[in-house]
Each structure stands twice: as structure tokens, then as C-alpha cells.
């Protein structure tokens, strides 16, 4: 009951921090998709870029989230505002699954289908946009799904650098040894991740059937 009372009595702050969390995750995912899918396409067409691009994304994924926030703090313009720093860090974390799934999805397209396209006189770019990408969307969405769930979780750490979000409750609860505050941040974050996972999972299945 204490947690429910907290949600009701502090509903304005809960809604504010929830919206901040959604905004950080939403903007970072838009950026990650806008960067990750073209990079995934690039590594299918230019083998020389494969190791540096996927390797670089792998390295970003291995850096602890709090350490990455700290590394980005001295960066000009980015470190001047906590929300910019958080969005950049979340974008970097989201890149690997998107790049990897874009690459895997395109590579998994049956070579005979590609040859049929070439036989019809299609150019390489026409085959990419009219054949390979439509056939690999479900795999790409699976990568976006994984990246979104990761971003929702990592966004709670953004509160450590003053970027707001539901992590504010978690860090405040830890400092005050208050379980209700910790749960006030953890439960909505978990629900958000679950909803995103279910929604993108439904889209993934719809694209497979389509």
C-alpha cells in the first residue's frame, strides 16, 4: 500500500520522470535506427568496413554504462547538458543489435532471389531496396526490439548525471534506503520495457507473415 500511496501522492513527479524517461529512450532509438540501419547496409556492401564497424559497436556495448557517461562528460557541447549526454550514450548502446541484425537479415536473403532480380535487370540498389530490405525487415525489427529494451534499462543510469528519468527514484531510494522509492522507479521502467518488447515483437511477427 505504501508504494500505491506514493504513486498517488507524488503522481505529478511520477508522470514527469516517466515522460523524461520515454523522451530519452525515444530520441536515442530514433538516432540509433537512423545510424544503425545504414551502417548495417554498409557492411554488407563493403566488406572492409565490417570489422571496424561491428567491432566498434561491440566495444561500446562492453563499456559499463556509468563509465560511458563519465567518459562523455568532458566532450564539448555533449557534456554541457545531461540530456544530450544521456541520449548519446543510449544511442551508442543501441547500435550493436541494430547493425548486427541489419547485416544478418540482408545476408540471410536467398541468393537465388537476388540472382532472379539481377536477371530481371535490377541494379544493386534496386535489389537492396526492393528485395533484400523488405525480406529482412523482421530480422531488423528484432534488433530494434533488443536495443529498445536495453535502452529502457540503461536510461535509469542517466539519473546519475542529472538527466532525469525514472532512475531519479531508484538513486534517491538507494541513498535513503527506501524500497518504495526504488520500486517506484524500477516497476514503471520494467513495464515500459515489457510493453516495448511486446509491441515490437508483434510487429516482428507481422512482418514475418507479410
Task: Please give a structural write-up.
The structure is a single chain. Helix 6 (111-119) packs antiparallel against helix 7 (124-154). The mean pLDDT is 90. This protein has 9 helices and no strands. The protein starts with a helix and ends with a helix. The protein is an all-alpha fold and 210 residues long.
Provide a compact summary of the structure.
81% of the residues lie in helices and 0% in strands.
Q: Main attributes?
A:
210 residues, mainly alpha
Portion of residues within helices: over 70%
**Would you identify the regions where 5 or more consecutive residues have pLDDT less than 50?**
none
Number of strands: 0
Element-level helix/strand string:
HHHHHHHHH
Largest sheet: none
Helix/strand-derived class?
A: mainly alpha
Overall pLDDT confidence: 90
Strand content: under 5%
Radius of gyration: 20 Å
* Number of helices, where a helix is a run of at least 4 consecutive DSSP H or I residues: 9
Instruction: Report the span from N to C terminus.
Output: 46 Å
Shape: elongated
Amino acid at each position: 500500500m505504501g508504494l500505491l500511496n506514493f504513486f498517488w501522492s507524488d503522481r505529478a513527479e511520477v508522470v514527469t520522470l516517466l515522460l523524461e524517461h520515454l523522451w530519452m529512450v525515444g530520441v536515442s532509438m530514433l538516432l540509433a535506427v537512423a545510424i544503425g540501419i545504414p551502417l548495417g547496409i554498409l557492411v554488407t556492401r563493403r566488406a572492409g568496413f565490417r570489422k571496424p564497424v561491428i567491432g566498434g559497436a561491440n566495444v561500446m556495448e562492453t563499456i559499463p554504462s556509468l563509465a560511458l557517461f563519465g567518459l562523455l562528460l568532458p566532450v564539448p557541447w555533449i557534456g554541457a547538458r545531461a540530456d544530450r549526454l544521456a541520449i548519446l550514450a543510449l544511442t551508442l548502446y543501441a547500435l550493436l543489435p541494430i547493425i548486427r541484425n541489419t547485416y544478418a537479415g540482408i545476408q540471410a536473403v536467398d541468393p537465388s532471389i537476388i540472382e532472379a532480380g539481377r536477371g530481371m535487370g535490377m541494379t544493386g540498389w534496386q535489389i537492396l531496396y526492393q528485395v533484400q530490405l523488405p525480406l529482412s525487415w523482421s530480422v531488423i525489427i528484432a534488433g530494434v526490439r533488443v536495443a529498445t529494451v536495453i535502452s529502457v534499462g540503461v536510461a535509469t543510469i542517466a539519473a546519475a548525471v542529472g538527466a532525469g528519468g525514472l532512475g531519479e527514484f531508484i538513486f534517491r531510494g538507494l541513498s535513503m534506503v527506501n524500497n518504495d522509492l526504488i520500486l517506484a522507479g524500477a516497476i514503471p521502467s520494467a513495464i515500459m520495457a515489457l510493453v516495448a518488447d511486446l509491441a515490437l515483437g508483434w510487429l516482428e511477427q507481422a512482418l514475418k507473415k507479410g
